[in-house]
């Protein structure tokens, strides 16, 4: 059935093509008849039409290798779609952006200085402490400082909540110090022409904020890796961030780690030795009367009570001391004296 339907479509479109060619030939004949050109021109047009008729008669419809369904009206495919009304476009909203839209580039020397800090932060602790102490919170803008936790709330919350709040407070305090450095630079530019000093303040502010940026990345890593396996933690503990938190080459590292682990298991010698103190023999079964009736009988009240079974035999110790020869080999009792 599919082959027959494809042949039918090919024949139908061939008839349409031939019909369009005939209509074009008739249109050209009508133009030649009603034109005011000379006889020579008319003769040349008639010859051209005859040649066109001969060429169209020899044309064979091209059969494609694989039948592809075509639309019933192929002329409508080339028509452009009309744009929507501006009010409708506003109602639909802005189109979603597939890629991140970055802004204007900064100076290359600046990008070269901030990139290492954004990856690892201020590595030397002494340098960081010195930088933070240099920019004290201004007296006329005390809100740059991170707010302290109220003693009443501090006594009411748990130890975990206090530790988490303290960590957030330290980051907020560093953010306030960075804002202080920026405002110092703005004050210099507003009150004097010391451009170098202003640039120095701005550079320190960028260092402080870049270190805070890197610290927040480490916090995210720790919070996300709590439920992962130890082997995977060893793999990602030294990874540097880029556009992604754990690096764009993380899939390649995972594949390489799996391949190394697989190869190591293949070349490792199997350990067939038993651990000291272990035995291959099966554990012995208990020698008790395992087939005897249970001693625990449920009472009517629903509780399991332990009572003596009247149908049980003597204890094993009594059975082991019993000797039948004492009864059968016993000497006869002496007759009473008369």
Short characterization:
With 338 residues, the chain is an all-alpha fold. Among the domains are: 2-70; 108-245, no CATH class.
Annotation keywords:
338 residues, mainly alpha, two-stranded antiparallel ribbon, 12 helices, 2 strands, flat
Account of the protein in words:
It is a single chain. By secondary structure, the chain is an all-alpha fold. Among the domains are: 69 residues; 138 residues, no CATH class. Helix content is 55%, strand content 2%. The chain contains 12 helices and 2 strands. It has a two-stranded antiparallel sheet. The longest helix is centred in the middle third of the chain and has 33 residues. The radius of gyration is 49 Å and the shape is flat. It starts with a helix and ends in a 10-residue tail after the last helix.
Q: CA-to-CA gap between the ends?
A: 130 Å
| pLDDT < 50 stretches | 34-46, 59-71, 73-77
Structural class: mainly alpha
Beta-strand content bin? under 5%
Report the principal-axis shape.
flat
**Which strand order do you get reading across the main beta sheet?**
1-2
Strand runs, count: 2
| Portion of residues within helices | 55-70%
Instruction: Report the C-alpha radius of gyration, rounded.
Output: 49 Å
Oligomeric state of this protein: single chain
Order of helices and strands: HHHHHHHHHHEEHH
Please tally the helical runs, counting DSSP H or I stretches of 4 or more residues.
Answer: 12
Mean pLDDT: 74
Largest sheet: 2 strands, antiparallel
